Amino acid sequence: MIVSPNEHYIALDSSSRSINDTVNGTHHFTIRGYSLAKGMGPGKYVSSDTFNIGGYDWAIYFYPDGKNPEDSSTYVSVFIALASEGTDVRALFELALLDQSGKGKHKVHSHFDRALESGPYTLKYRGSMWGYKRFFRRAALETSDYLKDNCLSMHCTVGVVRTRVEGPKMYSVHVPPSDMGQSLKHLLDAELGCDVVFQVGKESFKAHKIVLAARSPVFKAQFFGLVGNPNSGKVELKDVEPSIFKALLHFIYSDELPDFTEIDDSTPASSTIMTQHLLAAADQFGLDRLKLLCEAKLCEEFSTDTVATTLSLAEQHHCTQLKPICLKFAAANLGVVMKSEGFKHLEESCPSLLLELLETVALVDEKPNLVSGKKRSISSIFALDLAADGVAESVNPSGRRVRRRT
Questions:
Q1: Alpha-carbon distance 311 to 305, whole Å?
Q2: Which end of the chain, C or N, has fewer beta carbons within 10 A?
Q3: 229 and 332 housed in the same domain
Q4: Domain that holds residue 331
Q5: DSSP symbols for 240-303
């Protein structure tokens, strides 16, 4: 194309920006029976479960006898390891050993509250790690407030660095999030236009048939089905507690789990019980999303005292996601779980589950180390240490050592 010098062209300005930020997440790791972990030998560690942050799996390694043999078990070591495939993963880290006296004097090592001279750390490959070889002198740790009832507790925060490019947005209109749930909930709370009353025990609840029918196939059939009665103004329910039905209505109108403390003076233990009853009610009235929300909440809350009861519930109400999680947790803690009251109930109500539990125990015993994946030498899994004097070391597979000041 030949351009005449007399022709004029309009130069268009353009712009873009590179944005660097972090995807942050925290994992809580508790070590019970700390004294039993001692004596493993230098270089041997207790591992947390893997956790995912920023699209990568991570794990915490705690070395009760230290990582280096030359320290003669004088120090404990703590490291955060990249436990999934990845190359040149850049991240910030924070390790916090929790003060269990209630004074809040936690031992914290963090990259988030200061600028790093050389930028974030780069983990080269799976098994690369960052941490402290001399995290704490062991004798001092064992007489400190960090150790209570033979238990240590720590928080690990990982911030995975991500970079993205954004171009200019020529026009934009802010759209607020939907408040439909709040609006419907207001109708329920204010009892505006209610056309049905539920008698639950000694309490009564007003509601709207059309809303109930839209949310629950059971209510739809009851009020507008072939055998339903759309003119019925009062319904008596005998197989659900008032507090559970109130929580059920809260979800139907707001599409959210209720705060059980607002419904009843709930403790963590009673919250679990209410969630179990709410799951049963959700299954009864065909509220699949509420059922899944209850499964997720129970998954977060169950303990060795409650997992057997939750497992029985999952079996009775066909909770396909919750049941295998309960089986794995119970199998991993079988000795303690078998002493619980819930296990006695499980034996009586669902004896067939005992065989599945034994099969899961066998699978847990045969399961290989999830973090290691395959055998690697100590030198191959060590990529980055942060020594007690604040100097980080990076060792590559060829053995070349690079030191950097933090």
A1: 12
A2: N
A3: no
A4: 302-367
A5: S-HHHHHHHHHHHHHSS---HHHHS---HHHHHHHHHHHHHHHHHTT-HHHHHHHHHHHHHH--
Instruction: Give the model's pLDDT for residue 300.
Output: 86
- How far is 64 from 46, CA to CA, in rounded Å? 8
Q: What angle do CA 82, 85, 86 make, to 5 degrees?
A: 80
| Percentage with pLDDT > 70 across the chain | 84
Q: How many Å apart are CA 161 and CA 182, to the nearest integer?
A: 36
pLDDT in tens, 45-92: 999 999 999 999 999 999 999 998 988 889 999 999 999 988 889 999
Q: Which ranges of 306-401 would DSSP assign to H, the alpha helix?
A: 307-316, 322-332, 334-337, 341-349, 352-366, 378-381
Asked, for residue 384, whether it belongs to a domain, the answer is no
Q: For residue range 184-193, what is the model confidence (pLDDT) as tens digits?
A: 999 999 999 9
Alpha-carbon torsion (98, 103, 105, 110), positive or negative: positive
State the pairing for strand pair 151-166/121-123.
unpaired
The residues with which 234 forms a beta bridge, in sequence order, are 197
Retrieve residue 398's tokens: 């060829």
Q: Are 356 and 327 in contact (CB under 8 A)?
A: yes
What digits encode the pLDDT tens for the residues 214-238?
Answer: 999 999 999 998 877 777 889 999 9
